[in-house]
Specification:
By secondary structure, the protein is an alpha/beta fold. It has 13 helices and eight strands. The strands form two sheets. Strands 2-1-3-4-5-6 form a six-stranded parallel sheet, sandwiched between helices. Strands 7-8 form a two-stranded antiparallel ribbon. Helix 1 packs parallel to helix 4, helix 1 packs across helix 13 and helix 8 crosses helix 9. The protein starts with a strand and ends with a helix.
Length: 298
Amino acid sequence: MNKKHIIYVPGMSPKPPAEQLRDMLWRSLLEGIKRAEPDTVIEIEKHMDEFHVVAWNHAYYQNSHDTAQDLPWLDALLNKHGPTQQDIQEASSWRVQMLRLVYTIADHLPWLIRWLPESANNTIEETNRYFENQDNIGYQVRGMLKAVLRPILDKNEQVIVIGHSLGSVIIYDALWELSHNEVHTGKVDFLSLGSPLGLNFVQNKLQGRQYPQKNKYPKNIHRWINLSSVGDTTAIDRALKNDFSDMLKYGLIESIEDHCKGIYNFYRDDQGLNCHTSYGYLVNPAVGEIIAQWWKQL
């Protein structure tokens, strides 16, 4: 079998030290694949060396998250085989729906952003640090991903790049730079999880936004699959195909798929249900099925 690579780019907030984070993500990913296709996981688990995590968070925040705080909750998640009725009710609650509505309105009327909850404004401030390339940090984190991708693309090896939350934005921007500012012939498959790429706030700041027509978009994505869970208040616009349909129109990409219906992220910790966390996405058999099917492709 031709060599296959899985590259994972985390979302915001401080993370555990790089190797510990990689182990925790790998456990979650294998569990999701196991739930979808038990036979395929036996083959994939032999290839941890081809699982790359672009651990940009330490450079961004200059600190790490204590692994011990997450391990009991991760263990509980791995032993939980689906959302409970309480999970489903909380993910669809009026409070979550109202929050999504407020965020959607603010995305269309930016002058309202100042009135959002403090947590939302803190997230916007952290995100703007990336977009504004403060202290060269945007260039630095994209460079970390590109350093992993370049040799894979140059060898024309198969790769799926998985981006969670802001990680999906970093991937998009890095792929635009690789396909417009550099010359590489290979293409990637792209899986976005809980992505904010549907927001006007984000789209107005992406790499390539200033260019017309097909030059606006990356040219090195083979297939793009987007998945968002019920109740995820980061992926406010849960479907991305309509936002990036011009990529199909210009023949830049083979397909864009949205998987949004009936997807639940049922991770819980001492703060309660978290519909956005990376571990909860990875253990979902919907993600496991996508990875398994990609792995089996020739």
